[in-house]
Q: What sequence folds into this?
């Protein structure tokens, strides 16, 4: 099977800095891939290397089965939407949209037809003769999208395209881009530092750290079965709670290093006495009454109310966050939570933080 | 208005008048007769203003001198603009230790005065036979002198153009050269134009190279031609000043018309 974009053992160095390490990815046609990670993890560098704006140190990049590793950006037939939109300030919206087509010396009728179609899709019909400086942020964003779409490229590259928009518009454009992707079915690689953006938009999420791919897979796979502590902590909001614990003598439960040394059951079996890091998602800690199994009683330090949910921070070390889907009383002092055994994650306590057990 | 502002304004006026006095004296002297020039005490306004523009123009064949000046300034500006824009672009985009060395060398070139450079230049031009084409020789020498200034000014303009624009152009299907010519140059247009005007005005007043390299009177620019007023026994001061006024006035007009752009062009990059 030929993939739309295939990356094989890609490495890149900035002098002595190893910024991309053994990157391997296979993107089938029509897939929406999100590259996500903290700033400086190499996600933008990876995208720009795919685009040809950065040279690859070692490894190969294929687009539609043909190797493009050393080729110039224009030989790769990719379109890119930049964080700053990078609209040409000295050209009108129409000229911006048609720039690539004009470079290819397409006949005028083809260009006019394309402008008509694209301006309808992006809702820019009224703005074609304006200059970028006369547009609002959202409109500029649309022009940048339109400029990419009009070329009908073999893949779209997005470099944090929504990070310059305000929160409401960002949510709106998120849905727009997603709809557009469904309609055009174009292969897309989307860089973002926002894991919610990645989770909601992508078919396939690639989590990166320090130039390495930590894990890639479907969004819910990453959520349910993170392969290490970094991915577990990065995906999901609020972030997963990590608690040091020791596997009990029976091998099917862990003893927490909290006052009272509570014990939690998990599904599976680990060697007794193993030091582990327990991972509990805030939304899996249920403040339900009447269940005594896998119950923790925690002193409350602070409550954050968002309206739809309450986040309860406990007065323990380390702090535990509990996401309560309903409301809690003002002066709550103690909260009792239960956790289903299948939602208990165990990670090794060393620096790698490898997942030992992902039930779910 | 506070006292402080009044004092500052007065000081500014004093300095401006000191600066502009020679210009005023040039125009005034051009309008005076030969007796008025040496009158004591000197008069600050001519009694019988007269301007011998046509007479001076014809007597000294100023058309030819100004044509040579224009040729030298135009040639210099053309070479500097074409070569300097590419150079400034490269220096604005590549950042490494070697480029810092290059930039330093470029700036060093600007420090060296013409009068110091002319002797080695003359010797080397003589050897390659360039002195047979004296105006070309002056254009080359002056272009070399002006390039650093142009590069430094235009580089600042290129630095202000976001890199993403040129990357977008590359992805949209441009070659490197295409992205430079179609995106970078139009966006740096103001800086390039202002710097070119500055180079043109400076080259229009070039003296040292022309004086040294051009011996044939028919090929000399207006700056050198000014010397012909100096006789061994007497000097036609009124003629000199008329000549100077004819020469300087167009430059002044251009500068006044463009001064807003020139000032903003010079400070762009510096204030960022």
A:
């Amino acid at each position: 099977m030929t993939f739309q974009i295939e990356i094989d053992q890609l490495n890149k160095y900035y002098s002595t800095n190893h910024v991309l390490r053994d990157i391997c990815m296979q993107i089938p046609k029509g897939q929406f891939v999100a590259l996500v990670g903290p700033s400086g993890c190499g996600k933008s560098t990876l995208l720009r290397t795919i685009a040809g704006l950065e040279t690859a140190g070692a490894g190969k990049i294929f687009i539609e089965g043909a190797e493009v590793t050393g080729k110039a950006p224009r030989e790769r037939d990719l379109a890119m939407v930049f964080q700053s939109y990078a609209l040409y300030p000295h050209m009108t919206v129409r000229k911006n949209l048609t720039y690539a087509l004009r470079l290819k010396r397409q006949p005028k009728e083809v260009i006019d037809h394309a402008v008509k179609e694209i301006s309808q899709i992006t809702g820019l019909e009224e703005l074609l003769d304006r200059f970028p400086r006369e547009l609002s942020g959202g409109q500029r964003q649309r022009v940048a999208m339109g400029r990419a779409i009009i070329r009908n490229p073999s893949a779209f590259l997005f470099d944090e395209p929504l990070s310059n928009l305000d929160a409401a518009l960002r949510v709106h454009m998120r849905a727009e881009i997603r709809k557009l992707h469904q309609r055009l079915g174009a292969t897309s690689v989307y860089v973002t530092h926002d894991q919610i953006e990645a989770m909601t938009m992508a078919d396939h999420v690639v989590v990166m750290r320090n130039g390495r791919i930590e894990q890639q897979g479907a969004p819910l796979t990453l959520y349910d079965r993170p392969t290490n502590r970094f991915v577990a902590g990065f995906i999901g909001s609020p972030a997963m709670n990590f608690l040091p614990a020791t596997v009990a003598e029976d091998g099917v439960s862990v003893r927490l290093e909290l006052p009272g040394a509570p014990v939690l059951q998990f599904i599976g079996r680990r060697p007794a006495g193993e030091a582990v890091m327990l991972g509990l998602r805030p939304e899996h800690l249920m403040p339900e009454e009447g269940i005594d199994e896998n119950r923790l009683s925690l002193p409350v330090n602070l409550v954050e109310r968002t309206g739809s949910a309450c986040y309860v921070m406990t007065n323990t070390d380390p702090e535990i966050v509990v996401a309560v889907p309903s409301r809690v009383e003002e002066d709550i002092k103690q909260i009792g939570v239960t956790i289903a055994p299948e939602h208990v994650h165990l990670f090794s306590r060393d620096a790698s933080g490898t997942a030992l057990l992902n039930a779910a | 208005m506070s006292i402080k502002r009044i004092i500052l304004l007065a000081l500014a006026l004093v300095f401006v008048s000191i600066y502009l006095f020679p210009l005023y004296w040039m125009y005034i002297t051009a309008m005076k007769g030969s007796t008025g020039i040496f009158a004591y005490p000197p008069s600050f306004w001519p009694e019988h203003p007269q301007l011998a523009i046509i007479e001076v123009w014809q007597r000294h064949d100023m058309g030819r001198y100004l044509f040579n000046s224009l040729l030298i300034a135009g040639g210099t500006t053309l070479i500097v603009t074409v070569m300097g824009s590419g150079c400034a672009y490269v220096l604005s985009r590549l950042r490494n230790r070697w480029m810092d060395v290059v930039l330093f060398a470029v700036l060093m070139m600007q420090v060296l005065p013409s009068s110091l450079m002319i002797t080695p230049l003359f010797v080397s031009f003589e050897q390659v036979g360039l002195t047979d084409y004296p105006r070309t020789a002056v254009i080359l020498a002056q272009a070399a002198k002006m390039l650093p200034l142009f590069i430094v000014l235009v580089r600042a303009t290129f630095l202000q153009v976001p890199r993403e624009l040129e990357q977008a152009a590359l992805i949209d299907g441009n070659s490197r050269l295409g992205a430079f010519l179609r995106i970078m140059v139009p966006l740096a247009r103001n800086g390039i134009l202002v710097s070119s005007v500055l180079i043109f005005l400076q080259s229009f007043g070039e003296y040292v190279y022309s004086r040294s390299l051009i011996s044939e009177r028919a090929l000399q620019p207006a700056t050198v031609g000014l010397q012909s007023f100096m006789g061994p026994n007497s000097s036609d001061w009124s003629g000199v000043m008329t000549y100077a006024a004819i020469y300087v006035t167009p430059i002044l007009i251009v500068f006044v018309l463009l001064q807003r752009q020139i000032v903003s062009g010079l400070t762009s990059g510096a204030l960022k």
In short: The radius of gyration of chain B is 23 Å. Residues 1-50 of chain B form one domain. The mean pLDDT of chain B is 86.
